[in-house]
Amino acid sequence: MNWDWDVVNDFMPEFWDGLLVTLQALALGSLIAFALGLVWAMAQRAPYAWVRWPVTAFTEFVRNTPLLVQLFFLYFVVPEWGPSMSALTTGIIGLGLHYSTYTAEVYRAGIAGVPVGQWEAATALSLPRGRTWIAVILPQAIRRVVPALGNYVIAMLKDSPMIAVIGAMDMLGAAENFSNTTFTIEAYTVVGIAFLVIAYPASLLIRVLERRLALTS
Amino acid sequence: MPSPAENPENVLKNDGSATAGDTDATAPAASSAPSESSSRAAGKELVRFDNVTKRFGDVTVLDQLDFCVDTGKHVTLIGPSGSGKTTILRLLMTLLTPEEGTITVDGQYLTHEERNGKLVKPSDKHVREVRKKIGMVFQHFNLFPNMRVLRNVMEAPVHVLGLSKDEAEQRAKELIELVGLSEHLDKYPSQLSGGQQQRVAIARALAMRPQVLLLDEVTSALDPELVAGVLDVLRDIALSTDITMLVVTHEMSFARDISDSVLMFDKGKIVESGSPDKIFSEPEHDRTKEFLATVL
User: Fold this and answer.
1) pLDDT digits (tens), chain B, 296 positions
2) Based on CB atoms within 10 Å of each CB, which residue in A82, B161, B247, B255 is the most buried?
3) Domain containing residue A45: CATH number
4) What is the C-alpha to C-alpha distance for residues B236 and B72, in angstroms, rounded to an integer?
């Protein structure tokens, strides 16, 4: 096998486009996963069964079906009776929604880990429910779960090439496209290294955050 | 050692409505309607349990309990563990709900709400309104670890009583001074000793200006050398203010110092009650003698 730097050079323009798509999907997908996951986790502690039950059913459904199927569904089925969105937007929503069901579990564990005495103290002070969540429970719960949330960002990065199946050309999609038309293999290597270059510093960053957020108690 | 402020009653005064000496003989003895009238009239019944039963599964923790506490009185609940003392405080704080009976605070139902002359399950709003009259200090402090000392004490006055930040901060600082922790305003609870944390918890409870303060074994979780500091603060508050107290404690000399009356519990019932002198010096009931022999 011969390594040809010229091939790498030729791939670069497409690589940068693909990288941009990957990073957009990762950043926006994470935001959706973080926000929606929190909504699911809080809804599952709602005092009303008619809130808890549908949320549990929906999150279980999403968590136990493949991301790939969900992407196809969002891209090909939903537009039949709903809005049709670009491949990238669909991919971002798909990734965010899928991972929100995992972050929901992370938040749930974090919330359950806040000692019951904190809820009792909030009751004893008559703090309203919303204030109890915002000022007392979530600040303690989220600190505990930042590392676990970060791990899901890295997992999402590694799942992001799936959005290429609906036509959102991420790094790997770009590499496949390039390699199939030029009958070369260098592009795959470049993309593999790129994943490592993004994921490793991200995991270091998570560890730093973990240390800075730790509540010494 | 704490250095309590000179005049705690000034800090604790309930918005000028009444101080220790005030009496308000015209206030109705009991009224189910929410009233703005002074509730501090001496001798008026402030807390009342009627026929209260609490069960956990098959275990009956409180058995058709009746008792009441008058305004300004300090009542200590003693008895072996499992006798239902802490359950009484937790029922009053609405952390538990009784299976039977009613609890009344300042003439208003805590466990129920009156609607069209009938007693029904209370709305959240009603519970919140009545519960504001009650404050509690817990065995394990339960300070908010994500907030500094000052904010722990300010949080509820700002978000529940609707005080301005400035007013709440000033009051919080006075209370923190009262418990002798002025140098620690900007520390997190984890940077304080257990005794200091408990004193912050006392300040936090007092910041809501409750009419009734519930103390649930507040020194049980402390190292022995830290107990005295907390008890000194509480003794000072008990003796210099008109706040009503319900105290569960194993510190019998503290109970003797601050109590107007002592209730001896066993198996969910009051077996004996009376002045601390009577209960501690000449108990009548065998169960009381037996219990005191183990703790004194």
Assistant:
1) 444 444 555 555 544 333 333 333 333 333 333 333 444 445 689 999 999 999 999 999 999 999 999 999 999 999 998 888 999 999 999 999 999 999 999 999 999 998 888 888 998 899 999 999 999 999 999 999 999 999 999 999 999 999 999 999 999 999 999 999 999 999 999 999 999 999 999 999 999 999 999 999 999 999 999 999 999 999 999 988 899 999 999 999 999 999 999 999 998 899 999 999 999 999 999 999 999 998 87
2) B247
3) 1.10.3720.10
4) 14
Question: Comparing C-alpha atoms, which of B27, B54, B31, B47 is closest to residue B39?
Answer: B27
Residues A25-60: b if buried by 16+ CB within 10 A, e if exposed: bbebbbebbbebbbebbbbbeeeeeeeeeebeeebe
Q: Does B162 touch chain A (CB under 8 A)?
A: no
Contact B160 A127 (CB under 8 A): yes
Closest A-chain CA to B154: A125
Contact B190 A217 (CB under 8 A): yes
Q: Which regions of chain B carry the CATH code 3.40.50.300?
A: 43-133+212-222+238-296
A76: which DSSP letter?
A: I
CATH number of B43-133+212-222+238-296: 3.40.50.300
Contact list, B143 vs chain A (CB under 8 Å) = 121
Q: Is the ipTM of this complex over 0.90?
A: no
State pTM to two decimals.
0.83
How many angstroms separate the CA atoms of B23 and B250, rounded?
33
